[in-house]
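Page 47, continued from p. 46.
Same chain as before, 136 aa.
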Amino acid sequence: MLAPTFVLVDGKEVDVNLISDLVINAAIKVHTELGPGLLESLYEKCLFYELEKRGLEVQKQVPVEVYYDGVLMEIGFRIDLLVEKCLVVEVKSVENLLPVHKAQLSTYLRLMKQRVGLLLNFNVISIKNGIKRVVI
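Result:
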């Protein structure tokens, strides 16, 4: 399923596909510089740096509010990066992306009322094999 090209953020239209492309290009640069096999936290920090360097608004470790039966459950879920208030990015460094990783991102998108997310696995030979786009 393809997301609409534009989403509303703070009353203005933002091209979420363009933002996705910029994030993917930054991820390729990070992966080219570092290679596979390092800690997820390092890839996240370097990707955050690279995105800010490119002039994007990026928030890291953004809390995800979970309500159950109308009550906020303070459990401490966090997404890795929120780019331009419209793209959720989850960074992984695992042998293989599993269906549970995609399900986790889909749930985060739903809870945060976002439509588009990227799942980026840096523990691959070619980063192109570690990119999954999720649209709800």
